[in-house]
Specification:
The protein is mainly alpha-helical. The chain has 7 helices and no strands. It is globular.
């Protein structure tokens, strides 16, 4: 989804841009606050799916896996056709993998391969499944 501003100087667009810039700069707590503000005002906005994904990503890099899982699952629930859906599902798999929840990790990785077979995320999911098999997980 395009992040270019609307001609009216949309405050939602400004909130999204500011939060994304905070994320890019490594200010994850500020980014979380910003994406939450954006989503509270723009749940159906043009960048809502991306904001939801980046909110999960900010929690993920903070190693707050519970919050990250919640936010990535919202991408899948609220924006199932989003271009961010395969990435959200991949991150869900990575979180389960990091938590050594092998069954749920495999389930997520297999779903990516099934739903998004030609995507980069499917290739990454297959690589992780291959590693799990090699490691007898």
């Amino acid at each position: 989804m395009d992040a270019s501003p609307s001609s009216g100087g949309d405050s939602g667009d400004a909130l999204y841009k500011k939060a994304f810039e905070q994320l890019r700069q490594g200010h994850y707590n500020e980014a979380i606050s910003g994406f939450n503000s954006y989503l509270s005002r723009n749940r159906q906005g043009g960048q809502a799916d991306s904001a939801q994904y980046w909110l999960g990503e900010a929690h993920y890099v903070n190693r707050d896996f519970g919050a990250a899982l919640t936010e990535f699952n919202k991408v899948l629930e609220l924006y199932p056709k989003s271009a961010k859906a395969p990435s959200a599902l991949l991150k869900i798999g990575y979180i389960h993998y990091d938590q050594q929840n092998w069954a749920k990790a495999k389930q997520a990785f297999n779903q990516i391969i099934e739903r998004y077979s030609s995507s980069t995320e499917a290739k990454l999911a297959q690589q992780r499944l291959d590693k799990m098999r090699k490691d007898s997980r």
